[in-house]
Specification:
Alpha-Beta Plaits, about 180 residues, 4-stranded antiparallel sheet, alpha+beta
Protein backbone atom coordinates (compact mmCIF):
# COMPACT_ATOMS: atom_id res chain seq x y z
CA UNK A 1 0.00 0.00 0.00
CA UNK A 2 2.88 2.34 0.78
CA UNK A 3 4.39 1.62 -2.63
CA UNK A 4 1.14 2.50 -4.41
CA UNK A 5 0.75 5.76 -2.46
CA UNK A 6 4.38 6.73 -3.15
CA UNK A 7 3.98 5.94 -6.86
CA UNK A 8 0.75 7.93 -7.04
CA UNK A 9 2.45 10.91 -5.39
CA UNK A 10 5.34 10.71 -7.82
CA UNK A 11 3.02 10.63 -10.83
CA UNK A 12 0.95 13.55 -9.46
CA UNK A 13 4.06 15.67 -8.79
CA UNK A 14 5.42 15.00 -12.27
CA UNK A 15 2.09 15.90 -13.88
CA UNK A 16 1.84 19.16 -11.96
CA UNK A 17 5.41 20.10 -12.83
CA UNK A 18 4.89 19.47 -16.52
CA UNK A 19 1.58 21.28 -16.60
CA UNK A 20 3.03 24.39 -14.99
CA UNK A 21 6.15 24.61 -17.16
CA UNK A 22 5.25 26.32 -20.32
CA UNK A 23 3.26 25.47 -23.30
CA UNK A 24 0.74 27.75 -24.94
CA UNK A 25 -0.54 29.07 -21.64
CA UNK A 26 2.82 30.62 -20.59
CA UNK A 27 2.81 34.28 -19.53
CA UNK A 28 3.75 36.69 -22.27
CA UNK A 29 4.95 40.26 -21.90
CA UNK A 30 2.45 42.70 -23.29
CA UNK A 31 3.56 46.10 -24.54
CA UNK A 32 1.93 48.90 -22.53
CA UNK A 33 1.74 52.44 -23.82
CA UNK A 34 4.06 54.93 -22.01
CA UNK A 35 2.50 56.73 -19.08
CA UNK A 36 2.06 60.48 -18.76
CA UNK A 37 5.17 60.62 -16.57
CA UNK A 38 7.32 58.99 -19.25
CA UNK A 39 6.02 61.49 -21.81
CA UNK A 40 6.79 64.34 -19.45
CA UNK A 41 10.37 63.09 -18.96
CA UNK A 42 10.87 62.58 -22.69
CA UNK A 43 9.70 66.14 -23.48
CA UNK A 44 11.93 67.58 -20.74
CA UNK A 45 14.99 65.77 -22.05
CA UNK A 46 14.48 67.15 -25.54
CA UNK A 47 14.83 70.74 -24.35
CA UNK A 48 17.55 70.11 -21.73
CA UNK A 49 20.87 71.90 -22.28
CA UNK A 50 23.44 70.67 -19.78
CA UNK A 51 26.08 73.21 -20.85
CA UNK A 52 24.29 76.03 -19.01
CA UNK A 53 24.91 74.19 -15.72
CA UNK A 54 28.67 73.83 -16.18
CA UNK A 55 30.66 76.95 -15.21
CA UNK A 56 33.76 77.73 -17.21
CA UNK A 57 36.85 75.95 -15.94
CA UNK A 58 38.87 79.16 -15.43
CA UNK A 59 36.11 80.65 -13.27
CA UNK A 60 36.13 77.64 -10.95
CA UNK A 61 39.93 77.61 -10.66
CA UNK A 62 40.07 81.35 -9.85
CA UNK A 63 37.34 80.97 -7.23
CA UNK A 64 39.25 78.17 -5.53
CA UNK A 65 42.46 80.20 -5.52
CA UNK A 66 40.79 83.23 -3.92
CA UNK A 67 38.96 81.03 -1.42
CA UNK A 68 42.09 79.42 0.00
CA UNK A 69 44.57 82.30 -0.28
CA UNK A 70 44.02 83.53 3.28
CA UNK A 71 44.23 80.06 4.77
CA UNK A 72 47.35 79.11 2.82
CA UNK A 73 49.13 82.37 3.67
CA UNK A 74 48.31 81.91 7.35
CA UNK A 75 49.68 78.38 7.28
CA UNK A 76 52.91 79.56 5.66
CA UNK A 77 53.51 82.55 7.94
CA UNK A 78 52.67 80.77 11.20
CA UNK A 79 55.88 78.96 12.00
CA UNK A 80 56.05 79.09 15.81
CA UNK A 81 53.35 78.18 18.27
CA UNK A 82 51.99 81.09 20.31
CA UNK A 83 54.11 81.69 23.39
CA UNK A 84 52.70 83.38 26.51
CA UNK A 85 54.58 85.94 28.57
CA UNK A 86 53.56 88.15 31.51
CA UNK A 87 51.96 91.31 30.13
CA UNK A 88 48.81 93.39 30.14
CA UNK A 89 45.32 93.41 28.65
CA UNK A 90 42.46 95.84 28.98
CA UNK A 91 39.43 94.55 30.87
CA UNK A 92 36.43 96.19 29.28
CA UNK A 93 33.44 94.63 31.06
CA UNK A 94 32.69 92.29 33.96
CA UNK A 95 29.28 90.55 33.70
CA UNK A 96 27.43 87.46 34.86
CA UNK A 97 25.42 87.09 31.62
CA UNK A 98 27.01 84.98 28.86
CA UNK A 99 24.80 86.54 26.17
CA UNK A 100 25.94 90.03 27.16
CA UNK A 101 29.57 88.86 27.22
CA UNK A 102 29.29 87.38 23.71
CA UNK A 103 27.58 90.51 22.35
CA UNK A 104 30.30 92.78 23.75
CA UNK A 105 33.01 90.43 22.46
CA UNK A 106 31.54 90.54 18.95
CA UNK A 107 31.16 94.32 19.07
CA UNK A 108 34.76 94.82 20.18
CA UNK A 109 36.04 92.36 17.56
CA UNK A 110 34.33 94.42 14.86
CA UNK A 111 35.52 97.80 16.17
CA UNK A 112 39.11 96.82 17.00
CA UNK A 113 40.06 94.31 14.34
CA UNK A 114 43.81 94.53 15.00
CA UNK A 115 43.48 93.27 18.58
CA UNK A 116 42.34 89.92 19.92
CA UNK A 117 39.31 89.90 22.24
CA UNK A 118 39.08 87.32 25.03
CA UNK A 119 36.27 86.15 27.29
CA UNK A 120 37.66 84.84 30.59
CA UNK A 121 35.24 82.86 32.78
CA UNK A 122 35.98 83.24 36.48
CA UNK A 123 32.88 81.81 38.17
CA UNK A 124 30.35 83.38 38.37
CA UNK A 125 31.54 86.23 36.13
CA UNK A 126 32.73 86.69 32.56
CA UNK A 127 35.58 89.12 31.98
CA UNK A 128 35.89 90.61 28.49
CA UNK A 129 39.50 91.57 27.79
CA UNK A 130 41.23 92.92 24.73
CA UNK A 131 44.84 93.09 23.54
CA UNK A 132 48.27 91.51 24.06
CA UNK A 133 50.61 94.17 25.44
CA UNK A 134 54.06 93.52 26.93
CA UNK A 135 53.90 96.63 29.14
CA UNK A 136 51.30 98.96 30.64
CA UNK A 137 52.33 102.00 28.61
CA UNK A 138 51.71 100.28 25.25
CA UNK A 139 48.13 99.44 26.37
CA UNK A 140 47.28 103.05 27.29
CA UNK A 141 46.35 104.32 23.77
CA UNK A 142 43.78 101.54 23.33
CA UNK A 143 42.41 102.23 26.83
CA UNK A 144 41.76 105.86 25.84
CA UNK A 145 40.01 104.71 22.64
CA UNK A 146 37.81 102.29 24.58
CA UNK A 147 36.79 104.98 27.08
CA UNK A 148 35.86 107.31 24.18
CA UNK A 149 33.93 104.43 22.53
CA UNK A 150 31.58 104.09 25.49
CA UNK A 151 33.40 101.78 27.90
CA UNK A 152 34.21 104.13 30.82
CA UNK A 153 34.89 101.26 33.25
CA UNK A 154 37.70 99.77 31.14
CA UNK A 155 41.03 99.38 32.92
CA UNK A 156 44.44 97.79 32.36
CA UNK A 157 44.98 94.43 34.09
CA UNK A 158 48.01 92.14 34.32
CA UNK A 159 47.60 88.87 32.41
CA UNK A 160 49.58 86.28 30.46
CA UNK A 161 49.60 87.52 26.87
CA UNK A 162 50.62 86.06 23.52
CA UNK A 163 54.15 87.00 22.54
CA UNK A 164 53.68 86.03 18.88
CA UNK A 165 49.93 85.81 18.16
CA UNK A 166 48.89 83.94 15.00
CA UNK A 167 47.71 86.01 12.02
CA UNK A 168 44.02 86.79 11.92
CA UNK A 169 41.94 85.19 9.20
CA UNK A 170 39.27 87.28 7.48
CA UNK A 171 36.00 87.42 9.41
CA UNK A 172 33.88 87.31 6.28
CA UNK A 173 33.80 83.94 4.50
CA UNK A 174 34.81 84.14 0.88
CA UNK A 175 31.93 82.82 -1.17
CA UNK A 176 32.37 81.80 -4.79
CA UNK A 177 30.24 83.53 -7.35
CA UNK A 178 27.49 81.45 -8.89
CA UNK A 179 27.92 81.53 -12.69
CA UNK A 180 24.27 80.50 -13.16
CA UNK A 181 23.02 83.83 -11.76
CA UNK A 182 24.73 85.78 -14.54
CA UNK A 183 22.79 84.11 -17.34
Amino acid sequence: MKKIAAGFMLVAATALTCAGCGGENATTKTETPPSDFNLFIAEGEKGFNSSIYNPEFDVVVNQKKSLYTAIESAAVSTVALPETIPGFRIQVVLTQEITQAKAIRDSLSNKFQDDYVYVVYDAPTYKIRIGNYPDRSSASPLLKQLIRSGYPDAWIVPDNVLKNPPPRLPDQPIEPQNPLQKR
